[in-house]
Amino acid sequence: MPPFVSIIVPCYNEQTTIRHLLDSVLAQTYPHAQMELVISDGFSTDRTRAVIAAFQKEHSDLMVRVVDNLARTIPSGLNQAIRESSGEIIVRLDAHSMPIPEYVERCVAAHESGRGDNVGGVWEIRAGADTQIAKAISFAASHPLGVGDAMYRLNAKAGAVDTVPFGSFRRSLIDKIGVFDETLLSNEDYEFNTRVRESGGMVWLDPSIRSVYFSRSTLGKLAAQYWRYGFWKFKMLKRYPHTLRWRQALPPLFVLLLFALIVLSLFIGFARYLLAAQLICYFLTLILAGLKLAIEKNTGSILFGLPLAISTMHLTWGAGFLWSGISTLFTKHG
Q1: Which domains does the chain have, with CATH numbers?
Q2: Overall pTM > 0.90
Q3: Residue 119 in contact with residue 168, Cβ under 8 Å?
């Protein structure tokens, strides 16, 4: 008998994507009798629960349960789903995702063969809406200039990594290192994987474990997402400063230098030249990247859409990181 698997999903107002996830779970090659889906919902105010209820009526052979996420945060939702689940192996997914049919089967196979303590795969990022800017955002979210060396968003080889998206693990891992940290409203996956590695475990990336992830559909939503990422990354790094990667350090350094040159340019003429040089080099690099991708994809809108999306990611992530640090100083001296 294969091990019982619990798929856990935090969810809030996902009426446009939740059915994609449900259909993808239904299409899993893993035996349905040995699988459950536990959705931890933060009291969605749209039609998310109605969509789930309709699916439950149509497909009673698949065990789908909705539990209330009282704190309405991602880590609290994950922990609530874990408490309500009963699987020997836990597979974490997202309401914005569509796992391939073999997803659960390959996660289980990886654990059965002892490849890693937390096993995950790679993302194929798709646009969150049928608009030009949404398509540009999806390209930016998987571009090296946007995400650096985050291998789960790029072409990757199997091996040990610092983190994976979502991830799957045995319940015994929770007993060993604890649940997701509910004081972090973002970066909870990275912090969890840091504890896995520091406990002597391994985080394993398997490129055959694939899922589609729908990126944000507008620049405003993208900015809010990356501000949150940057803000909570600083909080996490206060505990684990040695986990800082170059891709994470560059945005706040760029924003800090940009702000400093803007202030200095009000008083020092030479600073204006440095500011202009920084901006010209930065946006020229992004425009050239946009031009290259526009030619490859035969889509002219990417020429300007990609620079807009990547600069939004860099500026908001960096600003959120710096603001988190500044607010921490104020809190200490308040």
Answers
A1: 5-217 (3.90.550.10), 237-333 (no CATH)
A2: no
A3: yes
